[in-house]
Amino acid sequence: MRVSGTAVRVIGRAHSVRLRAVIVRRAGGTTFLAGGHSLFAMHNGRRLASVVDNNQPTTGSVISTTAQITPSGQLNAGSTTVVGQQGSIQIQATVTKVEAGKITLDVGGQPLVITLPAGIQLPASLVGQTVTLTLNLTGSQPTAKEDDEQGDNDDQGDDNDDGDQNNNDDGDQGGDD
Question: Which of 15, 24, 93, 131 has the most CB atoms within 10 Å of its CB?
């Protein structure tokens, strides 16, 4: 892109992109990746169902890859190298469906189902909303982590302790009335 004064002119477009991201889930020919708090889908080359490759990176693998960008904006995987492992990651995505025990997120027009911790029920009013989730990536399927909210509550508890000191002053003033 070239900017000159108030005029903007497109002079080219990228045909590939270098990615470093965490694998959230593999489903068929699609790998759901997380990076920079975002989720995106990358399509893998077609493989025969009879060919099982046990060397494929799994959920939680941090990968480095160069992906090709199709004219429609789809990412197609190139060579991939595992550069680490991550047990959890925080992401933001739009909710498309809420069911008992699971939530469905929109990832570039593709659904990604995330299991919720036992006992967590989310309201249907979340559909269409963007949410922030911390995902546990230690199993074969990602799950939302319950302790993310508890961590927020702990922070609020610290704030409330500070607020209690102010409230004690307010309480003293209230007692003088």
Answer: 24
